[in-house]
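Lab notebook, bench 4. Continuing the backlog of folding jobs that were queued last week. Each job is logged with the same field layout so the records can be merged later without manual cleanup. Today's entry covers Phenylalanine--tRNA ligase alpha subunit, a 334-residue chain. Filled in by technician R.K.

JOB TYPE: sequence-to-structure
TARGET: Phenylalanine--tRNA ligase alpha subunit
LENGTH: 334
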Amino acid sequence: KELIGEVAAFNAKTKEDIETFRIKFLSKKGLLNDLFTEFKNVAPAERKEFGQALNTLKNAAQDKVNLFKDALENTTEQKGSYGDLTRPSEPIELGSRHPISIVRNKIIDVFSRIGFTVSEGPEIEDDWHNFTALNLPAYHPARDMQDTFFIETNPDILLRTHTSSVQVRYMENHKPPIRTISPGRVFRNEDISARSHCIFHQVEGLYIDTDVSFADLKQTLLYFTKEMFGKSKIRLRPSYFPFTEPSAEVDIYWGLETETDYKITKGTGWLEIMGCGMVDPNVLKNASIDPDVYTGYAFGMGIERIAMLLYQIPDIRMFYENDVRFLEQFKSVI
Ligand code: PHE
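JOB STATUS: finished
OUTPUT FIELD FOLLOWS
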């Protein structure tokens, strides 16, 4: 009992203290060994109690040694020695931003300079926000343009096929003037190939105010392509979207200076980069905005496509493979 008390009270200040303690109690010639030898001579009636006390003592002594060893080793490492101060530091591995993030941030930056806010919405959408409010009522043939992933068997709940759904939500919650872009992930049930994927990213934009005209749209697109690509020649080709009227496809003139230019523009010099148009009056009505007072334009682009053009990435699948040899190439870009 006395010894148990001694062990409990033991306090080591140096490594030598622990070693002395260890030799006294736990070494071959230590007290514990002596006591275990003595165990033989203990009267059978007292054996149980003696044995238990002995074990308690042994464990307590061992615990003390471990405790102080750990503590003293850590403190010498922390405070005791500074080591070799001239040793070169460990290199800090810097990660890199994903090219999708880089391009999304660039697009946000370009549009925020002309007053656009950024809005976001859910990736799991209902039919109203993804289709119906956008002038795509049930059974409208244009729904087939967007191969939709439905959630389970409920046709009302789906993975959004574009971020136009965010703009519907924005119109429901804000009064014009509205100037917002919505970046985000979208989903389409498409075969995966070098040019298309079932998951990709979009930035869509919406501008609603009094007297917004097609000329405003065109000027904004020109500003965007200049800032983004350094190209100042665009053309608008008539197209169709249910939510805009008139609608157009935007091409930029990429030029025909290199062999790659020939390849990616199929020899024409022109490259399609987004869809756009004047917001259909029905879409405004669906969001309780009076089309007799307000007009607006909208546009939408795929971030992957823009990134592929900017960085000459030949295959869309590279964005999702997380191959560090690919990702590391974007280290210098912020
Ligand atoms: N929502 C369209 C798409 O995903 C893009 C678009 C947006 C077209 C706005 C016109 C106007 O393809």
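OBSERVATION: The mean pLDDT is 90.
SIGNED: R.K.
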